[in-house]
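Input sequence (362 aa), recorded before submission:
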Amino acid sequence: MGIGDNYFFVKVTDKVVVHAEEPWNDHWLSFTNLDLLVPPFDVGSFFCYKKPSHGSFPDLLNTLKASLSRALSLYYPLAGEILWNPAAEENQFRCNNRGIDFIEAVADVELKELNLYNPDESIEGKLMPKKLHGVLAIQGEQLNKLQLVASENGQRRSKLEAFTSFLWKIVALSMEDSGNHNKLCNVALAVDGRRRLSEGDGEEKEKLMASHFGNVLSMPSGSKTSQELMEMSLSTIATDVHEFLQTATTKDHFLDLIDWVEERRSQPLVAIAFASKEMSVMVSSGTRFHTNGDMDFGWGKVVFGSCHVPSGREDCYVSTLPSPTNNNDWVIYMHLPMKHMNYIESHAGHMFKPLDSDYLEI
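Predicted structure, token format:
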């Protein structure tokens, strides 16, 4: 694995299984109706920290193991397995405390030497399995400009709507540039229904829904040809994004969605956003996830964190995350074909900044 003219190696020093601290009775747990709309989609994450100024490495590992064990006692299905339940005739959680693999490893490289912008060179096959993606940063002033342009029709659009509109158009431009003329290009936004489903039901219900770790998502989407998008202004595209997004922002929408799945639970189901064989990009907002401060285990805040989608997935997935260095910036994770990544790099360099040690201040 090369970094410039240098190479680094990762050596696994130990591998153990961490179980829940408090065991429970072995039982099956069914998926919720909204879980059934999301296909098996392996999205992971990784977090990087500066070297602690206190405590030995074994002590840090023991802290992590103990924290994980306690967390699994609260979220015990995560310590189980997804298996076929013959009695229910569907896949379910087998809550058997199988446990979580905990792998310890060391690398002969410093964090600041890693090319975090292009993980193909430094992360894949080392910290994460092989995959194709890119991680970039979009700065506060560029987001503000993008929002202003997207709001030129007189209606104020959110930063997420503006960014999604920009991404939708530039992917379409990349399609046209690569010879895929006038082909359908779809974009979908993941909408979290936790807060919406608990609206008006009191503080206790709000807390219960906020702690739910399953999928409570709707995925409204829009579909246009690449040529249409090429000819549309950003504000016009933003209007379309706003309109299809609004269809999934009410409590009634999520209640209707739950009922719709209940009537068809015995059938294979999938959200429209995942069913299309055309070019489709899923955008998920993680800018409200306060991982930068909450992921402190006692040796400092996160220096850098990002998503991870395995290379076997052909889905196009984009996630916006809060920057660890500037509250107004976003870190953008993109799991896209390289032809689109190359086009974005060459035609939107003014918008995105590659992640490097200078940006992360490490």
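Checked by second reader. Residues 260 and 306 are 34 Å apart (CA to CA).
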